[in-house]
Amino acid sequence: MGKGKAVFWGFVIPWLAYVVISPLFNFFNPQTKSPLILGMPPLMFWDILWIILTPFCLLIAYNIEKKGWS
């Protein structure tokens, strides 16, 4: 059971964030004034956020594998 949770945390969540949810942030027209999040366009903010969060997902997956959480 722990292996399935590890795959979910280490692979599925970051994949969903990049591949499935990322296109939803790209609906703003670059020719118009779009809202900025911390000075970045929404898609750039989302990608940088998940660059930071992916190692934490992998750390959770590693701990699940190492300790055998079920």
Number of strands: 0
Q: Which descriptor suits the 3D outline?
A: elongated
Strand-residue proportion? under 5%
Mean pLDDT: 80
**Any idea what the radius of gyration is?**
16 Å
Structural class: mainly alpha
Proportion in helices: 55-70%
Number of self-contained structural domains? 1
In DSSP terms (H or I, runs of 4 or more residues), the helix count works out at 2
Which residues sit in consecutive blocks of at least 5 with pLDDT less than 50?
none
* Succession of helices and strands: HH
Biggest sheet record:
none
Q: How far apart are the termini?
A: 5 Å
Secondary structure elements and pairings:
Layout: H1 2-21, H2 42-67
Outline the structure in words.
This protein has two helices and no strands. The chain is mainly α and 70 residues long. The chain has one domain (2-67). α1 runs antiparallel to α2 (42-67). The longest helix is centred in the C-terminal third of the chain and has 26 residues, at 42-67. The protein is elongated and about 50 Å long. 6% of the residues are buried.
